[in-house]
Amino acid sequence: MEIDPIPNGTGSTATSTPETVATTVASIAASNTTASSKLSQLTESLKLEHQFLRVPFEHFKKTIRANHRTAEKEVSAVISSVNDVADRNEISKDDAVLSLTSLVSRLQGLKRKLEEGSRTENLQAQKCRARLDHLESADAENMSEWNNVRLKRILVDYMLRMSYYDSAMKLAESSNIQDLVDIDVFQEAKKVIDALRNQEVGPALAWCGDNKSRLKKSKSKFEFQLRLQEFVELVRSENYMRAILYARRYLAPWGATHLKELQRVMATLAFRSNTECAKYKVLFEPKQWDFLVDQFKQEFCRLYGMTLEPLLNIYLQAGLSALKTPYCYEDDCTKEDPLSQESFRKLALPLPYSKQHHSKLVCYITKELMDTENPPQVLPNGYVYSTKALKEMAEKNNGKITCPRTGLVCNYSELVKAYIS
After folding, report:
1. d(C-alpha 29, C-alpha 13), whole Å
2. Pair 281, 275: CB distance under 8 Å
3. Which H helix or E strand runs over 401?
4. Quick one: which of 298, 234, 223 has its CA closest to 265?
5. pLDDT (tens digit, 9 = 90+) per residue, 135-172?
6. From CA 279, how far away is CA 268, in angstroms rounded?
7. CA 181, CA 171: separation in Å to the nearest integer?
């Protein structure tokens, strides 16, 4: 029994040959392999986005806690005021009106603070939502565009960490990625850093107070170091009595956990700021303020779940770790190697050398790897190039080969095949 072919939309019959079917199957398989590879690459990329979500979420939680503390404080004060008025046996009409007016004014102030806090929380929640949407938009088909946005995010992160705030803001605005970067978070840190560079500990101590519970949980001693520096400054200005009173109030509670450091700083009362004793002289040096700035940056990054190193450095080091070999540090290192540049060498300094089990030869002409499929061939002058490059050159020049380095001309038949062990 013969089955009639099913007509297509144009009324013609569709015929398929074995070659056509094989080609179609191969095309589909290749397409699926490519898509699978891109999907795997995308999955690996998203694993690196922990900080991208963690920072705005931590900032959101911090705002909620601050608003909650403000509301509790104000409500407690209002209730206390009401109880004071209620406990009075006799109160005049004018006093009652004055008390009620004060309470109403305080409640109106609380309402304004709560409304402002609510707006801030909504903006930060929107930022978290925007970042989730951005991650969800990542697709194997638009990886190039998505990676371009990620590169801009990494550059903004680097600029913010290096204190290039204006440049970071301009890049974020021009790329329309304000919700995908943490400018507001770093602006908060900028105030503390600027104050420390001006040798003022007030903003830093206020920051410690706002984050006291979390710093205590992480066993941070940043506040203690700030208190020590403030004590040293009192000794430097020869306010010895104030320094002693300050130590009793702010340093004594740390004695149980940091006794040795406390004893060393207290000894400055005897050695003074003009001492030549190296152990105590270092406490009066200006670099102590630089140490506090670095310490604050570390605590700040830990608090928000950021990496201590800029993301740009981490990504560059990941790539450089695969390129670093002893040859990179020799004088004749090729300029095409990124590690021929001093800035990259400095970045790669703490990295281990790349583990190379076998030598890899790269063709000088095509920049492609020479292997068993594309074996190296040796010219009479000893220079080595890939078979692919030399064949193409011979086809264009009637079997003649010209060495691109020395200008030697020879026949293709004169080449000797080399073997890689």
Report:
1. 26
2. yes
3. strand 400-402
4. 234
5. 888 777 778 888 899 999 999 999 999 989 999 999 99
6. 10
7. 10
Q: What is the DSSP letter of 416?
A: E
List, in order, residues 6 or more apart from 93 with CB less than 8 Å away: none
Contacts for 129-132: CB closer than 8 Å, 24+ residues apart? 130/179, 130/180, 131/52, 131/53, 131/56, 131/179, 131/180, 132/53
> Would you tell me how many other CB atoms lie within 10 Å of the CB of residue 13?
10
Instruction: Give the amino acid at 244.
Output: I
> 209-254, pLDDT tens digit by residue?
989 888 998 899 999 999 999 999 999 999 999 999 999 999 999 9
329, 345 in Cβ contact below 8 A? yes
* Contact between 356 and 347 (Cβ < 8 Å): no
Output phi, psi for 187, to 5 deg. Answer: -65, -35
CA distance 9 to 224: 82
Give the span between the Cα atoms of 209 and 214, in whole angstroms: 10
Q: What angle, rounded to 10 degrees, do the helices at 202-210 and 183-197 form?
A: 140
Q: Check if the beta carbon of residue 59 is closer than 8 Å to that of residue 304.
A: yes
- Given a cut of 60, whether residue 279 has pLDDT beyond it is yes
Is-contact 353 321, C-beta < 8 A? no
Residue 136 confidence (pLDDT): 85
For β-strands 384-386 and 376-378, DSSP reports them as antiparallel
User: What is the pTM for the complete model shown?
Assistant: 0.67
Query: 3-state SS of 286-345?
Result: CHHHHHHHHHHHHHHHHHHCCCCCCHHHHHHHHHHHHHCCHHHHCCCCCCCCHHHCHHHH
Amino acid (1-letter code) at residue 267: A
Residue by residue, DSSP assigns 186-237 as HHHHHHHHHHHHTT--HHHHHHHHHTHHHHHHTT--HHHHHHHHHHHHHHHT
Cβ 417 vs Cβ 377: under 8 Å = yes
